[in-house]
Design brief:
115 residues, mainly beta
Length: 115
Amino acid sequence: MTEGRIVRDGVVWVRKAERAASFLERMRGLLGRDGLGSSAALLIERCGAVHTVGMRFALDLVFLDRAWRVVRVVRGVRPGRLMVRGGWHASRVLEAEAGKLDLEGLGPGQALTFE
């Protein structure tokens, strides 16, 4: 996995972003982890829906389109959910430990960048 950061409105929003791009990285996701911590997230490429079966903690999800614009924000997804869809245009998802990122004011159409 490659590491970077996510920028929102010109300010670093996620200090540690792991990018899962390969099939195996995307398949493994956050399984087996006890958490990510503050200002950390996993960015899963080519992903329009996720599950939380086998997860050890709740997630906040930010679904993005190909142009890195927010499509949908889903807060507090508990472990054991079979599917959470991002919508028709979602092509990647940012997964963070529930409550660890400031999602206030984040909504559809807002652009993010990965550095």
